[in-house]
């Protein structure tokens, strides 16, 4: 795993992008004629097949009876937003991997595409009760699926995960996992365990993955990450001691890199990209 931004950056982005999103579970009495429709076939997002190499998703009338399931998400810029699942790719559309589409979308559409993917995946994987096996039903009052037999309620799953960028004067600790793209390095990351605080998770994951100890944790930001349902919570952490020992099967390589000689790092599309670049700037200014 490897994009929220700092509060200052987020505020700047909000000023530069006037598109405002209001979340909701139920559509208004008079839905907008056009809307933002995030439709998926499997795990791929549908985009107009207009010959453009750059993914784009303009507002449209939706897919009507072609949609096997549909969920209301809220309103963006006064237009209703929907998540929809289709069995096949309709004429005039093409299916694109979600990650590739999100990398090209403006921030509001990127966030909504991720939200839509998570809602649809939750709906798909909770059609039957995990307690007694009975077919579940959508709740009329909230975003949940309820078992009519035993009353068990299933809400959209959110899996908190920490991300930690370890630093010491003039250097960052970056690592790569076996599944990364060639030459790509990033901050450390891992899921929070039951009964664990975020701070405890940072200390444990860092020591497990690279064998070093940290101190002076500083919160950076968070990002909803729909692969498949993570909430990434990012920190910087000062190196406190220990030598790098990569965890077998988890970390392919790790090392200390000068601020002005970093390897390939994730783009700003992900929180890792913001975290690394903003930390380099902060440490460089501090001298």
Automatic annotation (TrEMBL):
Lineage of source species: Bacteria, Pseudomonadati, Pseudomonadota, Betaproteobacteria, Burkholderiales
Superkingdom assignment: Bacteria
Cofactor: Mg(2+); Zn(2+)
Catalytic activity from the UniProt record: a 5'-end NAD(+)-phospho-ribonucleoside in mRNA + H2O = a 5'-end phospho-adenosine-phospho-ribonucleoside in mRNA + beta-nicotinamide D-ribonucleotide + 2 H(+)
NCBIfam families per UniProt: PRK00241.1
GO cellular component: cytosol
PANTHER family given in the database record: NAD-CAPPED RNA HYDROLASE NUDT12, NUDIX HYDROLASE, NUDC SUBFAMILY
Enzyme Commission designation: 3.6.1.22
Gene Ontology annotations of biological process type: NAD+ catabolic process; NADP+ catabolic process
Domain Nudix hydrolase: 156-280
Keyword Magnesium: yes
Family from the record: Belongs to the Nudix hydrolase family. NudC subfamily.
Protein name as it appears in the record: NAD(+) diphosphatase
Source species of the chain: Azohydromonas caseinilytica
Gene3D superfamilies per the UniProt record, alphabetical: 3.90.79.20, Nucleoside Triphosphate Pyrophosphohydrolase
Keywords: Hydrolase, Magnesium, Metal-binding, NAD
Pfam families: NUDIX (PF00293), NUDIX-like (PF09296), Zn_ribbon_NUD (PF09297)
MF annotations from Gene Ontology: metal ion binding; NADH pyrophosphatase activity
CDD domains (alphabetical): NUDIX_NADH_pyrophosphatase_Nudt13 (cd03429)
């Amino acid at each position: 795993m490897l994009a929220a931004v700092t509060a200052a950056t987020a505020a700047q982005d909000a000023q530069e992008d006037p598109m405002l999103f209001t979340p909701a579970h139920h559509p208004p009495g008079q839905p907008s004629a056009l809307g933002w429709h995030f439709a998926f076939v499997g795990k791929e997002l549908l985009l107009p097949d207009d010959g453009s190499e750059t993914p784009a998703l303009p507002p449209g009338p939706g897919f009507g009876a072609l949609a096997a399931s549909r969920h209301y998400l809220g309103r963006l810029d006064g237009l209703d937003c929907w998540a929809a699942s289709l069995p096949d790719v309709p004429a005039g559309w093409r299916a694109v991997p979600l990650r590739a589409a999100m990398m090209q979308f403006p921030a509001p559409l990127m966030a909504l595409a991720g939200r839509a993917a998570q809602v649809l995946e939750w709906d798909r994987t909770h059609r039957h009760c995990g307690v007694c096996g009975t077919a579940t039903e959508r709740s009329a009052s909230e975003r949940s699926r309820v078992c009519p037999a035993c009353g068990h309620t299933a809400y959209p799953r959110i899996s908190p995960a920490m991300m930690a960028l370890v630093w010491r004067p003039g250097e960052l600790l970056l690592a790569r996992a076996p599944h990364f793209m060639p030459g790509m390095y990033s901050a450390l990351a891992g899921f929070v365990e039951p009964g664990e605080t975020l701070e405890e998770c940072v200390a444990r994951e860092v020591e497990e993955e690279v064998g070093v100890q940290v101190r002076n944790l500083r919160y950076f930001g968070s990002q909803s990450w729909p692969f498949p349902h993570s909430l990434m919570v990012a920190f910087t952490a000062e190196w406190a001691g220990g030598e790098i020992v990569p965890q077998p099967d988890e970390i392919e390589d790790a090392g200390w890199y000068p601020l002005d000689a970093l390897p390939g790092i994730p783009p700003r599309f992900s929180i890792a990209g913001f975290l690394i670049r903003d930390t380099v700037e902060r440490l460089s200014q501090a001298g």
